[in-house]
TrEMBL record:
GO terms for cellular component: eukaryotic translation initiation factor 3 complex; membrane. Residues 642-654, 693-709 have a biased composition (Low complexity). WD repeats lie at residues 6-47, 48-89, 186-218. It comes from the Eukaryota. It is found in: Membrane. This is Eukaryotic translation initiation factor 3 subunit I. It is a multi-pass membrane protein. Pfam families: EIF3I (PF24805), Solute_trans_a (PF03619). It comes from Blomia tropicalis (Mite). One of its GO terms (molecular function) is translation initiation factor activity. Keywords: Initiation factor, Membrane, Protein biosynthesis, Repeat, Transmembrane, Transmembrane helix, WD repeat. The keyword Flavoprotein does not apply. Residues 710-727 have a biased composition (Polar residues).
Length: 733
C-alpha cells in the first residue's frame, strides 16, 4: 500500500497530534491554518481559519469536542471541533508555543515565548471560569528559572502535575500544588525539545528535538527507553493510539541550510515502528520549488519497504518476462521438432517450471497483500513436485527404460560412499527393488507436496499457519517437518539413481541437468525457510495493513522470496536452455522429414500430449501396487500380439535418441545403439499409454507411407507389446 498524502499545508509542519480515539489527526503549520484529517484514509475534514501567524501548537480535549491552538500572533484560541467555529480568544501579548488540555477538559496549559526582556512563562487557566479567557486569572503561573522557554507540555495523572520540554533540551516535571518547584529534571537532548506526546495509556511519552532525535521516556520516572534518529531536525512526534508505531515529522528551514528563499527548505516525515525502530517511510522532496512544501504533510500509514515500491515490481517483471521469452521459445522449438516424443515430452514439462515459477512469483509481488501469497504459492508447489518426477522419468527414457537399466546394473555391488549416502548399503547389489525405491521416492513427493499445499490453505483460512512461526500451535512447524522429510527423500532417490547410472548417463551431460533442476527446486525451498526465520527474528522490516495492524508472519519473507525467484528464473532459463537443447532434435528432424511441414495444429497436438498427466497416475499405481510386477520389458517385433503389419512398419522406423547418434560427443555408443535398435525397453507407463492409444493409432497406420502427411512417430507406434515377467527380487522391498 502506498503512503497517504495529506496535502493541504503550504509551509513546514510545526505540530501533529492525534485525538484520544486515534481517528482524527490534527496538524499545524507556518501557513497559519490548522487542519484536521481522518487518520485512516487521509481525508481532510476541515481547517480552523483565523490565525494571522504561524501556529505552533494544537490539542483536542478528551471527547473531541474542543480544540485549542497557540500561535505566533500572540493568541490562544478555542474552537468547536465539529464546526470549526472559533469559541474564544485569549490575547497573550507574546507568542504561544504550546497548548494542552487537562484530562478533565477544565484546565488548559499553555507556554509563551521569550521576547526582549520578557521571560517565558507557563500558565494554567480554567476555561470554564467565564465567557472570556484571561491570562491574568491563571490558576498557575510559572516563570522558567533557566530563562528557556517551554515549547511543549504534558499533563500528569489526575491533573496534579505536568511535564514540559524546553529550549535548553531539558524535560521538567512540575507539581501543580507547588508552583515553581521542580519535581524532576532530565536532559538527554542536546538541542531544544519541540514536542512531547503520550501514548494512549499515558505510560510512556515521546519527545521531538532539534538535535535530529526522538526519544521514548517512562512517564513515571522520566527514564529514557528508546532512541530514534533522523537526518533532519524533528519538529513533532506522535504515538498512534491504535497502532504500534510513531509518527515523526520535521524539517529544516532554508535559512538554516543556505541563503536561498525561506520557502525552499528541506523537510522530512517518517513513520517508525515504536518497538523496532524501523523506518516506515522517508519522504524528502526536492529543494527550490515552493509548491513542494506540500510533501511535508505526507504521512505513511504503514512501513514502506522495497517490495511495495514500483521499482521492485518493475525489476521483477523485467527478469520474469525475459525468462518467459527465452523459455517459451525453447518450448516452441521442442514442439516444432517433436521427433522423439518419448524424451521431449519430459523435457517440455521440465521447461514449463520457468513460466510457472516466474509468473506465479511476479503476480504474488503485484498483489502484495497479507496472506495472498499462500494461494499463489500453492500453484507453484504443485508443479514443483511434478518436475521431480518428470526429470527422473527422462533419465529412465535416456537409458531405454527399466529393462535396459537393469540389464546394465543388475547384480553389480553398490559402492560405499558417504557423499552419496550409500555407506549403509555395503555388501548389497543393485536390483529391480532399487529402481522401484528411486521411483517411489519421487512419486511420494508428487503426492505429499499438493497435500501439504492444500493443508496450508486450510490452516491459513483458520489462522493456524504463519510462515516462520515455529511454535507448536502453528501449522508451519508441522508442514515444514513433513515437507522436509519428503523433499529429502525425493532428493536422496535422485542422488542414488544418479550414483548408480552416472556412467550410463555420461553421454547426456547429467551433471548439468541434475544441478539445474535441483537448484530450482531444492535451493528455492531452503531460501524460503531462511527468509522466514529472518523475518521471525525481526531482521526483516514488517508490513502494516491499511488500518495500522501488523501483517501476519511470513508476508514479507514470502515477498522477498518471490522477488528473488523472479530474478533467479532468468538465470534458470539460460541454464535450462543449455541443459536441454533443442538443436539435436532439429538436426534429426531435418534429416528425416524433408518434405514435412509443421503446422500450429501439430504443435498444439504435441503440447496436448505433453501436458497429459495420465502417465504419472498410472506410474504411481504401478509402483505402489501391492502386486507390483518387478518390471515389464517391451521388445520390438514385427507382427506380434496385435498381428498388425502397420505396427511392424512403424517399428522399423523407430527414432533413436539424437544424443546417442551424435558422434561429436566422443561417446562410443555402438553397443547401446545396437541394443536399442533390436531390443528397446520402456517403463510400464509407456505400455499403458500404448494400450490407451492403440485405437487412435490404427487410424494413422494408413498414413505411415505418405511422405507429405507423415505424422511424428509416437511411443505406441514405435513399439509393440510383449511382456516378460522377470523373477522377483526382494532386496529393496
Amino acid at each position: 500500500m502506498r503512503p497517504l498524502s495529506l496535502q493541504g499545508h503550504q509551509r513546514s509542519i510545526t505540530k501533529i497530534r492525534y485525538n484520544a480515539d486515534g481517528d482524527l489527526l490534527f496538524s499545524t503549520s507556518k501557513d497559519n491554518t490548522p487542519n484536521v484529517w481522518y487518520s485512516l484514509n487521509g481525508e481532510r475534514l476541515g481547517t480552523f481559519d483565523g490565525h494571522n501567524g504561524a501556529v505552533w501548537s494544537i490539542d483536542c480535549n478528551w471527547d473531541s469536542t474542543r480544540v485549542a491552538t497557540g500561535s505566533a500572533d500572540s493568541t490562544l484560541r478555542l474552537w468547536d471541533c465539529e464546526t470549526g467555529k472559533c469559541l474564544n480568544i485569549l490575547n497573550t501579548k507574546i507568542s504561544v508555543r504550546s497548548v494542552l488540555f487537562s484530562y478533565s477538559g477544565n484546565l488548559l496549559l499553555y507556554s509563551t515565548d521569550q521576547i526582549m526582556k520578557t521571560q517565558p512563562e507557563i500558565r494554567v487557566i480554567d476555561i470554564n471560569s467565564g465567557e472570556h479567557l484571561s491570562g491574568e486569572s491563571a490558576v498557575v503561573a510559572i516563570k522558567d528559572p533557566e530563562q528557556k522557554k517551554a515549547l511543549s507540555s504534558l499533563w500528569g495523572p489526575l491533573d496534579q502535575s505536568f511535564i514540559t520540554g524546553h529550549e535548553s533540551g531539558s524535560i521538567v516535571k512540575w507539581d501543580i500544588r507547588n508552583p515553581g518547584e521542580i519535581v524532576q529534571q532530565v536532559r538527554n537532548h542536546k538541542a531544544q525539545i519541540n514536542d512531547l506526546q503520550y501514548n494512549r495509556e499515558q505510560t510512556v511519552f515521546i519527545s521531538a528535538s532539534k538535535d535530529h532525535t526522538s526519544r521514548l521516556y517512562d512517564a513515571y520516572n522520566l527514564t529514557p527507553m528508546k532512541l530514534y534518529t533522523t537526518d533532519r531536525p524533528v519538529n513533532s512526534a506522535a504515538i498512534s493510539p491504535i497502532c504500534d508505531h510513531v509518527v515523526i515529522g520535521g524539517g529544516q528551514e532554508a535559512m538554516e541550510v543556505t541563503t536561498t528563499a525561506a520557502e525552499s527548505g528541506k523537510f522530512e516525515n517518517k513513520t517508525i515502528t515504536m518497538v523496532n525502530n524501523n523506518s516506515s517511510s522517508s519522504l524528502i522532496p526536492s529543494i527550490g520549488v515552493p509548491q513542494l512544501a506540500n510533501n511535508i504533510t505526507l504521512l505513511a500509514e504503514h512501513p514502506g519497504i522495497f517490495l511495495q515500491s514500483t521499482s521492485a515490481k518493475v525489476i521483477a517483471g523485467a527478469f520474469t518476462w525475459m525468462a518467459l521469452i527465452i523459455t517459451c521459445h525453447q518450448i516452441y522449438k521442442h514442439l516444432k521438432y517433436y521427433t522423439l516424443p518419448s524424451e521431449q515430452r519430459w523435457i517440455v514439462r521440465i521447461l514449463f517450471i520457468v513460466p510457472i515459477y516466474g509468473l506465479d512469483s511476479w503476480f504474488s509481488l503485484l498483489f502484495f497483500r497479507d496472506n495472498y501469497y499462500v494461494y499463489f504459492d500453492s500453484v507453484r508447489d504443485w508443479y514443483e513436485a511434478f518436475v521431480i518426477y518428470n526429470f527422473l522419468s527422462l533419465c529412465y527414457e535416456y537409458l531405454g527404460g527399466e529393462g535396459n537399466i537393469m540389464s546394465e546394473i543388475r547384480g553389480k555391488p553398490i559402492r560405499s560412499s558417504w557423499w552419496y549416502g550409500t555407506c549403509c548399503l555395503t555388501g548389497r547389489t543393485y536390483s529391480i527393488g532399487f529402481l522401484r525405491f528411486c521411483k517411489q521416492a519421487t512419486l511420494q513427493f508428487c503426492a505429499v507436496k499438493p497435500i501439504m499445499s492444500f493443508a496450508t490453505l486450510i490452516l491459513q483460512a483458520f489462522g493456524k499457519y504463519r510462515d516462520g512461526d515455529w511454535s507448536p500451535d502453528s501449522g508451519y512447524l508441522y508442514i515444514i517437518m513433513i515437507y522436509n522429510i519428503s523433499v529429502s527423500l525425493a532428493l536422496y532417490g535422485l542422488v542414488l539413481f544418479y550414483y548408480a547410472t552416472r556412467d550410463l548417463l555420461s553421454p547426456y551431460d547429467p551433471v548439468w541437468k541434475f544441478f539445474t533442476v535441483k537448484s530450482v527446486i531444492f535451493l528455492s525451498f531452503w531460501q524460503g525457510v531462511i527468509l522466514a526465520i529472518l523475518e521471525q527474528a525481526d531482521l526483516i522490516s514488517p508490513v502494516f495493513t491499511w488500518d495500522g495492524a501488523k501483517a501476519s508472519a511470513g508476508t514479507v519473507s514470502a515477498g522477498y522470496q518471490n522477488f528473488l525467484i523472479c530474478i533467479e528464473m532468468f538465470f534458470a532459463s539460460l541454464a535450462l536452455r543449455y541443459a536441454f537443447p533443442y538443436h539435436i532434435y532439429e538436426s534429426n528432424y531435418t534429416a528425416d522429414n524433408h518434405s514435412r511441414s509443421v503446422t500450429m495444429q501439430s504443435i498444439s497436438s504435441s503440447l496436448k500430449e505433453t501436458m497429459n498427466p495420465r502417465d504419472i497416475m498410472n506410474d504411481a499405481i504401478h509402483n505402489f501396487h501391492p502386486n507390483y510386477q518387478q518390471y515389464t520389458q517391451y521388445t520390438q517385433s514385427a507382427k506380434t500380439n496385435s498381428g498388425s503389419s502397420a505396427t511392424g512398419q512403424a517399428s522399423a522406423s523407430t527414432p533413436k535418441s539424437p544424443i546417442l547418434t551424435d558422434t561429436s560427443n566422443g561417446y562410443n555408443s555402438a553397443a547401446l545403439t545396437e541394443t536399442n535398435a533390436t531390443n528397446v525397453t520402456l517403463s510400464t507407463l509407456s505400455a499403458d499409454n500404448q494400450m490407451a492409444n492403440s485405437g487412435n493409432n490404427s487410424n494413422n497406420d494408413s498414413n505411415v507411407n505418405n511422405s507429405q502427411n507423415r505424422q511424428i512417430p509416437t511411443i505406441s507406434q514405435n513399439y509393440s507389446e510383449k511382456t516378460t515377467l522377470l523373477s522377483s527380487d526382494d532386496e529393496f522391498q
